[in-house]
UniProtKB/TrEMBL annotation:
A Pfam entry, by short name: Semialdhyde_dh
Family: Belongs to the aspartate-semialdehyde dehydrogenase family.
Subunit structure: Homodimer.
Record organism: Aquiluna borgnonia
One example of a Gene Ontology biological process annotation: diaminopimelate biosynthetic process
Keyword NADP: yes
Pathway(s) it belongs to: Amino-acid biosynthesis; L-lysine biosynthesis via DAP pathway; (S)-tetrahydrodipicolinate from L-aspartate: step 2/4; Amino-acid biosynthesis; L-methionine biosynthesis via de novo pathway; L-homoserine from L-aspartate: step 2/3; Amino-acid biosynthesis; L-threonine biosynthesis; L-threonine from L-aspartate: step 2/5
Catalytic activity as recorded in UniProt: L-aspartate 4-semialdehyde + phosphate + NADP(+) = 4-phospho-L-aspartate + NADPH + H(+)
Gene3D superfamilies: Dihydrodipicolinate Reductase, domain 2, NAD(P)-binding Rossmann-like Domain
Domain Semialdehyde dehydrogenase NAD-binding: 5-120
Protein name as it appears in the record: Aspartate-semialdehyde dehydrogenase
Keywords: Amino-acid biosynthesis, Diaminopimelate biosynthesis, Lysine biosynthesis, Methionine biosynthesis, NADP, Oxidoreductase, Threonine biosynthesis
Its EC number(s): 1.2.1.11
């Protein structure tokens, strides 16, 4: 087969923009690369591998001649258009939550379960949530070695997880707090500081300020007091790792960081393991970077990780109270490996299969 033709749906969005950067930074394995977006973005020109590409409006005809389509759009758009594209013979790699838990749709992380991408009865492959993806390359490697049985996860999620409005809101609040810092309002009452500056709380994605704050709820509230993000961590981890009875407890928190999610992970395994063994196993993984010398200030942080592809792991430690458990701090760029990069890597798997 000649080089497959690729479409990017949502090419002008936040994740789509990162996707184009990823495409441009890698070998061109594609025939045509077609950029698709909403009608208001149609006609816009974007450089792809050194050539201007004109964005076309999302329509059934936009998928003519396409072999693989990556969807970086809201759930409701994917729900409608991925099946339409799949019906035309297009393999759809979807970054939304629309199909992740559908039993007929594989949920794929290439480092963990690449084989799953070959079984796609609906013609759709799902990309996991960015929070789950942040830890999956590392946890998948440890599971292969020691058999994971339990996960306790606390996430510290960047505002970009809420899209462009999240980034804009944090920037507005930081500017307001900085402007009013001398008056003492910033340290005593952020809400009052924002009101003083004319920043209206009802315009925010969150019910309370995010500047100088942490919000112990990421996603929307669901049954039993859990958030949608917490349920995604549980359900997606089980599906990706193939452990239906995996015990998972997650607390997802929004923090005033623009890009990169961080996770504190307590992982328990069926077999004993040591810190040195875990560190050695993680250092073998081609997409994991170990930064684990805290005594000398070496550990992963969002500021360091942003814009990079790998998963970064540090603070590897163990307590005698839990001999089969390990504690890790894991950080990943939520717009790259947490979204665009993993989607692209799935598309690469399919391209290799079609070749």
């Amino acid at each position: 087969m000649s080089k497959p033709n690729l479409a990017l749906v949502g090419a002008t969005g936040a994740v789509g923009t990162v996707m184009i950067d990823i495409i441009n930074s890698r070998e061109n394995i594609w025939g045509e690369i077609r950029l698709i977006a909403s009608p208001r973005s149609a006609g816009k020109q974007i450089m792809v591998h050194g050539q201007p590409s004109t964005v076309v409006a999302l329509s059934e005809e936009a998928f003519d001649g396409i072999d693989i389509a990556m969807f970086d759009v809201p759930d409701e758009v994917s729900e409608v258009w991925a099946p339409i594209a799949a019906a035309k013979g297009v393999v759809c790699v979807d970054n939304s939550a629309a199909f992740r838990m559908n039993p007929e749709v594989p949920l794929v992380v290439p480092e963990v379960n690449p084989f799953a991408a070959k079984s796609r009865p609906l013609g759709i492959i799902a990309n996991p949530n960015c929070t789950t993806l942040t830890m999956m390359a590392a946890i998948g490697a440890l599971h292969r070695k020691w058999k994971l049985t339990e996960l306790v996860v606390s996430s510290y999620q960047a505002v970009s997880g809420a899209g462009a409005p999240g980034i804009e809101r944090l920037q507005q609040e930081i500017a307001a707090v900085a402007k009013n810092a001398e008056a003492g309002l910033a340290t005593n009452n952020v809400s009052a500081t924002l009101a003083e500056s004319g920043v209206i709380q009802s315009d925010s994605p969150w019910p309370v300020p995010i500047a100088l704050n942490v919000i112990p709820l990421a996603g929307s509230m669901k049954a039993d007091g859990h958030s949608s993000e917490e349920l995604k961590v549980r359900n997606e981890s089980r599906k990706i790792l193939g452990i239906k009875d995996l015990k998972v407890a997650a607390t997802c928190v929004r923090v005033p960081v623009q890009v990169s999610h961080s996770l504190a992970v307590h992982a328990t395994f069926a077999n004993p393991l040591s810190v040195d063994e875990v560190r050695a196993e993680l250092e073998k993984q081609p997409t994991v970077v170990v930064m684990d010398d805290p005594a000398n200030g070496v550990f992963p942080t969002p500021a360091h990780v942003v814009g990079q592809d790998p998963t970064f792991v540090g603070r590897i430690r163990q307590t005698e109270d839990f001999p089969n458990s390990i504690d890790l701090f894991v950080v990943g760029d939520n717009l790259r490996k947490g979204a665009a990069l993993n989607t692209y890597e799935i598309a690469q798997l399919v391209a290799e299969e079609l070749a």
